[in-house]
Write a structure and sequence with these properties.
It contains 10 helices and 10 strands. It is α/β, with parallel strands linked by helices. The chain has 2 domains: 165 residues, 3-Layer(aba) Sandwich (Rossmann fold), CATH 3.40.50.300; 69 residues, no CATH class. Strand 9 and strand 10 form a beta hairpin. Helix 3 packs parallel to helix 6. The longest helix has 18 residues. The radius of gyration is 17 Å and the shape is globular.
């Protein structure tokens, strides 16, 4: 029997008077990779930010590991072992790679820092060569690797990834998706992935959801969604690169 790690029920989120999420229902089970696809402006990033407490859901409930986190502040949610690599990376550009990773470890286990550091540097060997380099001097792909590595230093039970492939070369995208797959297969890490690259995301995911205008309109296994004619037409045709 599958156990939901994250449950979202009837969530409505507003920006001022504009309703961005219109009653979202979804769940992520322990050990799964779940992806959320949709057009630009559909509300995908808003859902991810709402899960992390900023903005807050005005209606509905969000539960993580059996606890209601709907009204918790973001820093308390992070302590519950839910970590996010946000859209746009948002690394600390003036800090070195190592200092960024140390910031990620503030909610981790201090005694395990060296082991956790070795783990993320094995996953992303390029960061090992850049440890003393400032984050702002890294390439876009290296910054994305650093954003994911920083989130992993918190030892999360659930990793939220917002548009990890955005603006990156296909070879770097493959490296990042391979790393996500390895984290799930080898460490059992649960991953919730928001992604515009529907082809790569649905190939990777156990299950997927489709969002249109702040509502979930379709769900199914990654393979099922890849085969649906409306998904192919809306998100995949010409978009396999």
């Amino acid at each position: 029997m599958t156990t939901p790690l994250l449950t979202v029920r009837g969530v409505k989120t507003f920006y001022g008077r504009v309703m961005a999420l219109k009653g979202v229902d979804m769940n992520v089970n322990d050990g799964e990779i779940v992806t959320l696809i949709g057009a630009n402006g559909a509300g995908k990033s808003t859902l991810m930010m709402t899960i992390c407490g900023n903005p807050r859901a005005r209606e509905g409930t969000i539960e993580f590991a059996g606890s209601d986190i709907t009204q918790l502040p973001t820093h308390e949610i992070a302590r519950l072992k839910l970590a996010q690599a946000p859209e746009g990376r948002r690394i600390f550009s003036r800090m070195t790679v190592l200092e960024n990773l140390q910031m990620g470890a503030t909610t981790g286990a201090p005694a395990e820092f060296d082991r956790d550091l070795e783990r993320v540097l094995t996953l992303f060997p390029r960061l090992k060569q850049r440890l003393n380099q400032r984050g702002g001097t890294l390439s876009g792909g290296e910054q994305q690797m650093l954003a994911i590595a920083r989130a992993l230093m918190a030892r999360p039970r659930l990793l939220l990834l917002d548009e990890p492939s955005l603006g990156l070369a296909p070879m770097i995208v493959r490296q990042i998706f391979d790393a996500i797959k390895a984290l799930n297969a080898e460490d059992g890490l649960t991953v919730f992935l928001v992604e515009q690259n529907a082809y790569h995301a649905l190939k990777l995911a156990h299950r997927g959801y489709v969002m249109v205008n702040g509502l979930i309109t379709l769900s199914g296994s990654g393979r099922e969604l890849l085969e649906r004619p409306e998904i192919k037409q809306a998100y995949l045709e010409g978009g396999r690169a």
